[in-house]
Design a protein that fits this description.
heterotrimer, A mainly alpha (about 230), B mainly alpha (about 300), C alpha/beta (about 260), A: about 230 residues, mainly alpha, MetI-like fold, C: about 260 residues, alpha/beta, 4-stranded antiparallel beta sheet, 10 strands, globular
Chain lengths: ~230, ~300, ~260
């Protein structure tokens, strides 16, 4: 038994620490992608949700089609299409530096995909508000905008926090797929280190813990918020 | 005839029954939306045209049986076989670790819980990478050498660990959704814990869990496309690599492949919805069926949403 | 069908029998189901009209058309001589003048009891916060919930919630109050506390349309009983006449079923 080899492959966090600069910038890239995609997905998802619950049938049909298509397409395909299709074939952002276009194409693909889930989450949040609440608001004489703003949305918002947290966490994990759009983030860094210094157990766990540092507090925060703001019926 | 039921037809939680002005406004908004949507689609179509993507030569391959036989169908077969194998293994994983998490023994419950939380907190892709590159390294640490892990095996391992962990949570929620009275009634007639679990809780839980399990299969099917990254020759690979390199028609290939994925997943989702409706109707379980969308059910502090 | 009997008690006291709510030839369909058939109904100022009848006969729907929570397909509804607006700000304004109490209370779940009562006055009537609060506390006092003003609806019993709902409606100074089966969702021991509040209101001359199964209340507080079955007004009469000497077979049948038990 070669104990040095045993130690190196299973327990030695040395390589992980030696490459901490690359790893740090990898996770920084993950965070930059997550933050931008989260904001855009929230905006687009809200717009889609508004369309999906609107009384205008064309809006509903458009949003439904968008959601059904994006939700049922693999994210890998979408991001790949952003890289190979939008940039390489159709020439979107073809002039930009690869790092810049990689970032924005990853943002576009990830937020377009995540928006479909944000939309469905918001829609089911609105559906948790009993119709009686709206009827009571109308009966008091509140016009549409005020019943929406004062009664329905505040309740829907509270119901939506926890599931929205789940969507956000899933999205953070999904940034790992952005490497197929040519964006170099934490997972791409791990893959490269696997190739360069070997796929050792400490290296894998190092990256796993890195992702957990991003996802676990997010989950705790949203869970805490949801509990704090829950509406008892 | 109950009056309260038909009420749903009228007015939503958001909107009153529309009057003439609201109907007029809705029509205008409808027309505006249609124009915007057609504009966006038109722009895309025009851009494709500018890049010559509508040339028949690029689309023609999809009318040839050969292209389907040598690329698409084998790719589809690989996608489905990875998904089916991973789904079966994940179910087994879910049942075993699910029982583990529900165990009264701390030394069983804790490690099972830790494993499940770990696999759900990290991206599937890093599991797939490690599943492929890790085992030979680990074997080497023990001075052994093993066959390289195939792309198929790596994909299946990654999908199994993640989705299996999701199934554990579904399984727990399914058991918990059964009213306490059912277990109490079991104990009251003298059954032991294992008998209560196997004869009373589990049969009822299966009914309630079916829809959400089936819709998790959609997630699993989509994630199987991650195999592309390690060169697994799945449906995505068939379109974006093989067909494209033969005919240089990425856009048409992407559209066709997307259509296939969406069709399969919509079918499975429909199946999940049908199961949900059916188990809602059936009287074979004391519990309300879990919603087919797993995200709601798993949205607890320590749960990582599986919905995406 | 009987002619509507002239209301006696409160109307005489008020000395004003102008119609406040008028339904003329109202028809409504849910899909192919004809739920309201040629409804003609007049409610005069200060009058208490109790609507009774078998479940599913259209009572609730009728009540809900009066503030247009349900739209109608034919006919007209006048409130205080004005046709019921169809949508928009005008409809909102009208609804603020018509108080509504629901079977399931429908208190705003995310607001305290006090906020439930002050929301309308501050946002619709544009009262100052202090004014609205003072008035709300007076109303909560009146329904006996003042000491719970800072609690949330889910912390109150059903009977208490329903009394708050009445206070919420009264805070808008409505011309007429609609009660849609206000006690049907309550535990038996809580029904009386709600009915007492309603009886007081009736005595004070509030114009009320009450859909209920509480025959005791109908007998004591109503000026007039409207019996609805299968979407039609089958009979209208004073409580005394209706309960002792119902004219239609349908009403006799209904009464034989409920009064026996």
């Amino acid at each position: 038994m070669d104990w040095n080899n045993f130690y190196d492959k299973l327990l030695n966090f040395g390589p992980f620490l030696e490459h901490s600069n690359e790893i740090w910038s990898g996770f920084l890239a993950t965070i930059r992608l997550s933050a931008m995609a989260a904001v855009l997905a929230l905006v687009l998802g809200t717009l889609l949700a508004a369309m999906r619950v609107s009384p205008v049938s064309v809006m509903r049909a458009t949003a439904t089609m968008y959601v059904n298509t994006l939700r049922n397409t693999p994210l890998t395909l979408i991001l790949l299409f952003c890289g190979l299709g939008l940039r390489d074939t159709l020439g979107f952002m073809a002039q930009a530096a690869p790092t810049v276009s990689g970032y924005w194409l990853a943002v576009a693909g990830l937020s377009a995909y995540t928006a479909a889930f944000v939309c469905e989450t918001l829609r089911s949040g609105i559906n948790t508000v009993p119709i009686g609440q709206a009827e009571a608001a109308r009966s008091v004489g509140l016009p549409f905008s005020q019943s929406l703003r004062l009664v329905i949305l505040p309740q829907a918002f509270r119901a939506v926090i926890a599931p929205l947290g789940s969507v956000l966490i899933a999205m953070i994990k999904n940034t790992s797929v952005a490497l197929v759009a040519g964006y170099f983030e934490a997972t791409a860094t791990m893959k490269q280190l696997f190739d360069d210094v070997g796929a050792t157990v400490p290296l894998f766990f190092g990256f796993a813990i890195g992702y957990m540092i991003l996802t676990l507090p997010t989950g705790l925060l949203f869970g805490w918020l949801a509990k704090r703001m829950a509406v008892t019926r | 005839m109950r009056i309260r039921q038909p009420r749903k037809q009228q007015g939503s939680v958001l909107f009153d029954a529309p009057g003439p002005r609201a109907r007029w406004l809705n029509r205008v908004l409808g027309v505006v939306t249609a124009i915007v949507v057609l504009g966006v689609v038109g722009l895309f179509v025009w851009q494709l045209d500018r890049k010559g993507q509508w040339a028949w030569a690029l689309w023609e391959p999809f009318t040839e049986a050969k292209v389907w036989q040598s690329f698409i169908l084998p790719g589809l077969k690989n996608t489905l076989s990875a998904a089916v194998v991973a789904a079966a293994l994940a179910l087994g994983f879910g049942v075993i670790f699910g029982f583990g998490r529900l165990s009264e023994r701390r030394w069983i419950r804790m490690p099972c819980g830790a494993a499940v939380e770990f696999f759900r907190a990290i991206p599937v892709l890093i599991m797939i990478f490690f599943a492929q590159a890790g085992p030979p390294v680990i074997a080497d640490a023990f001075n052994r050498s093993i066959e390289p892990i195939s792309a198929f095996e790596a994909v299946v391992i990654g999908l199994t660990l993640y989705n299996g962990s999701v199934f554990v949570e579904i399984f727990r929620a399914g058991i918990r959704a059964i009213p306490a009275g059912q277990a109490e009634a079991g104990y009251a007639i003298g059954l032991r814990k294992s008998a209560v679990m196997l004869r009373i809780l589990l049969p009822q839980a299966v009914t309630t869990m079916m829809p959400v399990i089936v819709s998790q299969v959609v997630v699993l099917l989509k994630d199987s496309a991650l195999g592309y990254v390690i060169a697994y020759e799945d449906l995505l690979n068939a379109g974006f690599v093989q067909i494209k390199s033969n005919f240089n028609n990425l856009i048409p290939a992407a559209i066709v492949i997307t259509g296939i994925y969406v069709a399969i997943n919509l079918t499975v989702s429909y199946l999940a919805g049908w199961l949900e409706r059916r188990s809602r109707r059936s009287r074979k379980s004391a519990a309300v069926p879990l919603p087919a969308d797993a995200s709601a059910l798993l949205a607890t502090p320590f749960s990582k949403g599986p919905s995406i | 069908m009987m002619d509507s009997a002239p209301a006696v008690k409160a109307v005489a006291a008020n000395g004003n029998d102008a119609p406040l709510v008028e339904l003329k030839n109202v028809n409504k369909y849910f899909g192919s189901v004809h739920v309201l058939k040629d409804i003609d109904l007049v409610v005069r100022r200060g009058e208490v009209v109790v609507v009774i009848g078998p479940s599913g006969g259209g009572k609730s729907t009728l009540c809900r058309t009066i503030n247009r929570l349900e739209s109608i397909d034919e006919g007209t509804i006048l409130i205080d001589g004005q046709p019921l607006p169809i949508e928009g700000k005008a409809l909102a304004r009208l609804r603020s003048e018509v108080g509504m109490v629901f079977q399931s209370f429908n208190l705003f779940a995310h607001k305290t009891i006090l906020q439930n009562v002050t929301l309308g006055p501050t946002k619709v009537l544009k009262l100052s916060k202090a004014q609205a609060k003072e008035e709300a506390m007076r109303l909560l006092e009146r329904v006996g919930i003042a000491h719970q003003a800072e609690k949330y609806p889910a912390q109150l019993s059903g009977g208490q919630q329903q009394r708050v709902a009445i206070a919420r409606a009264l805070a808008m100074h409505p011309k007429v109050m609609l009660f849609d089966e206000p006690t049907s969702a309550l535990d038996p021991e809580m029904i009386k506390e709600v009915l007492d509040v309603m009886t007081d209101l009736a005595r004070e001359g509030m114009t009320m349309v009450v859909v209920t199964h509480e025959m005791g209340f109908a007998r004591n507080a109503a000026n007039r009983i409207v019996f609805i079955a299968d979407g039609q007004i089958v009979e209208e009469n004073t409580p005394e006449e209706f309960f002792t000497n119902a004219q239609s077979e349908r009403a006799k049948d209904f009464l034989s079923k409920i009064l026996v038990h």
